[in-house]
Amino acid sequence: GIGIREVLLTSGCPGTETKCIIRVEECQAPVDCGWGIPISEGLACVKMPCIFIPPENRFKYVWKMLIPNKVTRMLPNDSAIMEVCRDTHSITFQCETQENGNTVASIKYTVYAKTEMQTKMSKRLETEQSRRTKTDAILVFCLVTGIIVTVGVIFPMIFMIL
């Protein structure tokens, strides 16, 4: 296959991270490059790329909608990048990159529902605010400690001089 994939660790990451990248590797033997990260992701829509190397028009792209317990639905989009607007349910998409009729790479994306994205965004904001609060507390502690140490050193030196 072609392309790269990120290998993620979902536990044991540093700090409060829930996922962390442990390595990036080239997809060579299997055509399945796992799960991708969209190019752009907003509350309304998502842009997802297929795996390709230049020139882009060298390949044919087959997009599929994977619905659990149902038949896979082929989509009419044949471009390397597909934009999808969020629905009320999460949907999984798969893109197969084909060259001369053979699949050379395959990647999947889960497009979360609007409500799930709003929940994820609010959790992310809470985490960022918590981090900022901790960082602010550490900075204030360092500043106060620095002032106390400075004053503690300067006053004895003044008394020694006098």
Automatic annotation (TrEMBL):
GO BP annotations listed: acrosome assembly
Keyword Transmembrane listed: yes
Transmembrane parts of this sequence: 138-161
Keywords, comma-separated and alphabetical: Membrane, Transmembrane, Transmembrane helix
Cellular component aspect of the GO annotation: acrosomal membrane
Organism (species): Chionis minor
Gene that encodes it: Spaca1
Keyword Coiled coil tagged: no
Name the record gives this protein: SACA1 protein
PANTHER family: SPERM ACROSOME MEMBRANE-ASSOCIATED PROTEIN 1 (PTHR47223)
